[in-house]
Amino acid sequence: MTHPAFGNPLSSHTQGHRTEPGVPFQGSSPSASKTAAEAAALEASIAHYQRVAARKPDDPDVCFHLANAYRQAGQPQQAVEWYLKSLHLNSSQPKIYGVLAHLLSALGQYQEALQYYALALQSAASPHENLENLFHLGELYKKLRVFEQAVECYEYVLKLKPDYRPALLALSQIYRQQCKTGEAIEIYDRQLAMNPDDISLLLSKALTLPIVYQSTQEISDWRARLERQINELSRRNLQPDASLALHGGTFYLAYQGLPDRAVLTQVGEIVQKLLPPSPALSSAPNAKPRIGIVSRYLTPSHTVGKFMQGIIQHLSREKFEVIAFSVGREYAYLPDGSEQPDDRFVILPSDNIEAAARMIAEAAP
After folding, report:
1. Are 127 and 115 in contact (CB under 8 A)?
2. 249 vs 117: CA distance, rounded Å
3. CB-based contacts of 48: which residues, under 8 Å, 6+ apart?
4. Distance between CA atoms of 273 and 256, rounded to whole angstroms?
5. What is the rounded distance in angstroms from the CA atom of residue 74 to the CA atom of residue 347?
6. Which residue has the higher pLDDT, 151 or 299?
7. What pLDDT, in 10s, does the model give residues 141-191?
8. Which of 17, 69, 183, 327 could form a disulfide with 175 if both were Cys (CB 3.0 to 4.6 A apart)?
9. Is the pLDDT of residue 53 over 80?
10. Could you give the angle at the alpha carbon of 281 between the alpha carbons of 265 and 291, nearest 5°?
């Protein structure tokens, strides 16, 4: 199957996009946080298939299983190497194309990823086999900010499976990024038609706001809408929800130029009720107090990174231990000059709030 998203040249979309060199990759493992037993089991699996591969170097199935073990252990570069070797020994393995494309995309090798997504889509026996690959292709185009083709991929996925939530959420995110507030809200309404009591969707919809307003009356109307919907959520009997996943946030609220404290407090109280109980935190005796900074945007190119630079630089390392938590990023680094030798960096999963909470708790000294 050939997808129309491949109709335009690819090279112009991939120039200048690479994963930061030398930074450990975090995105290839099915789970961003493994127990010691799980990690040990994966290492044992890798060792086993390495021994078998030494005896049977020309067996494509052995290479394939070793690649799978590396991928599950969060070692994508080695996984790519062994998947390619398996394909070299037996080119009739279309199941590998999508996996390779996903790994290469996460590694920042976007041109190669696009080529393997093309192979995966062309080799599928039926359109429905392409659903996951089409979605991940859309994610890659979104990362490259080729929004038109990303939307095309998501819409095609939704033709195959109208209730495919990841594609619906991705569409709403793109429309928010493009300042198409009405279109983003329409996507939330499509999802709410299927799940009318989904608190994550209701709160995300309420927090979907324009960036630019045409008049003070428009600001007043959007603020009234927000307050009405937040009040409705506050009156609900909210319970902890491990699947909580908010899209967007309160960032654009400040663009209205109105007092925000009451609304922000109300939103915070709603989210607090929805969060699962946090694990108990512990400290070593006489340990310095820890200051954790959690953000998706601790990079020199983002406003949040620039804003935090001075704060992080001037925190006393004699009094405090500083830990930076990056949400959902394969790599994260603070602006030049803000790092200290003793600072720690932890990458949190963006799709598993319980795992993220556990990792923050485990960051205790």
Report:
1. no
2. 32
3. none
4. 27
5. 13
6. 151
7. 998 989 999 999 999 999 999 888 889 889 998 998 888 999 999 999 988
8. 183
9. yes
10. 65
* Residue from 241, 21, 7 nearest 146 by CA: 7
At 301 the pLDDT is 77
Taking the model in full, what pTM does it have?
A: 0.67
Distances (CA, A) of 4 to 9, 152, 168, 179, 282: 12, 8, 20, 25, 54
Burial of 51 by CB count in 10 Å (0-12 exposed, 13-18 middle, 19+ buried)?
exposed
Q: What is the pLDDT of residue 3?
A: 52
CA 323, CA 340: separation in Å to the nearest integer? Answer: 11
Closest CA to 243 of 352, 358, 163, 167: 352
Find how far residue 167's CA is from the centre of its chain: 13
pLDDT band at 17 (very low <50, low <70, confident <90, very high): very low
Amino acid 43 reads E
Q: What is the pLDDT of residue 334?
A: 55
